[in-house]
Amino acid sequence: MGHFSSMFSGLARSFSIKKVKHNNGTCDAKEAADEMVKDAKKKEMILKSCGYVYAEGSNNSASVFSKRGEKGVNQDCAIVWEGFGCQEDMIFCGIFDGHGPWGHYVAKHVRNSMPSSLLCNWQKTLAQTTLLDPELDLEGSSKKFSRFDIWKHSYLKTCASVDQELEHHRKIDSYNSGTTAITIVRQGDVIYVSNVGDSRAVLATTSDEGNLVAVQLTLDFKPNLPQEKERIIGCNGRVFCMKDEPGVHRVWQPDAEAPGLAMSRAFGDYCIKEYGLVSVPEVTQRHISAKDHFIILASDGIWDVITNQEAIEIISSTTERPKAAKRLVEQAVRAWKKKRRGIAMDDMSVVCLFLHSSSSSPSLSQHVQHAMTFK
Q: Where does the PPM-type phosphatase domain lie (predicted)?
């Protein structure tokens, strides 16, 4: 057996699953995924609110913070899961930014259901691929199925099933409400990024010249992006800005001044799904090197007032990792009050995932000439 099948065997052993059941070529892994969730909760490896997570024996550490804006209840939420899928070298992180009257319920539902659904689909795909080729070695240069293929397929199935489940949820009205979802899975020295909506992932890395630079890992899926606008118009939806919001492109129904959604991809929002809004994620991967320091996941409230470069400099100049996410949010609040005076502040949420242990990571302070401050 190659690395691929041995990984699946490791998952099975984690819960003494002696045999995987197969029906018509599919694998039922939901029970195993649910057990993994329960086990992770017991061991306090899942963080769903503000704080800091660092699992013993792990090189991963993450800082999380969320702050309510001035529009009502906080519709943002986050998750960090160390030891994702009972694998010591895996971690799952996500930011979910809800909108609409039921947006906070939608965001929390997607946050709670996505990790276990992703695990389930990942195990299914893993098992099916292993059955097709038991000698498959993911590390081989001539592999037919790559790890990226597996994760992309798993994410596509997960997002489709989560959105379908949400549509038929008896207690959550998501017809005029929805959420974004920016998530990453780190597996060893590779990260897989899935993006639905306009939240953003930014990597802090060292350039060849030795400077700390920001690399944006995702697109902000706004309705005016050429490929997004083409799809929306092709589905008879409309894209335009309101007179009092120049530069803010929104999706509208063909014959109504609704819903005015400022993103082109989201979970929920079924009032406009037939007019070009989709919940299909963009899935990408990146190999982590010694030059890569941390990844910031943040809702759009942060990026409305903070640039990518400012964000990584704020994090890198924070001496205590557990306070990193909170400090970025606090700086964004100050920036909002300065740059967007008179406009109700949005909810702001940040997950900062450090890619190397503090003892092995090179000092970041040498890259930062000036800490970013907003008075």
A: 61-355
Helix spans in 249-288 (H): none
Q: State the residue range of the domain holding 128.
A: 3-221+263-367
CATH number at 270 reads 3.60.40.10
Q: So what's the pLDDT on residue 358?
A: 74
| Domains in the chain, number | 1
Q: Per-residue pLDDT for 368 more than 50?
A: no
The tens digit of pLDDT for each residue in 1-40 reads 444 444 544 454 444 333 344 444 344 678 888 888 888 8
Residue 102 resides in a domain: yes
Q: Is 196 part of a structural domain of the chain? A: yes
Is residue 253 domain-resident? no
Distance of CA 332 to the CA centre of its chain: 20
Position 10, amino acid: G
How does residue 258 score in pLDDT terms, banded at 50, 70 and 90?
Answer: confident
Q: What beta strand segments (E) does the chain contain?
A: 22-23, 26-27, 46-47, 51-53, 61-67, 76-82, 90-99, 178-179, 181-187, 190-196, 200-206, 212-216, 238-241, 249-252, 259-261, 267-268, 282-287, 292-298, 348-354
pTM score above 0.70: yes
Provide Rg for the chain, Cα atoms.
Answer: 21
C-alpha span between 300 and 174 (Å, rounded):
20
3-class secondary-structure state, position 83? coil
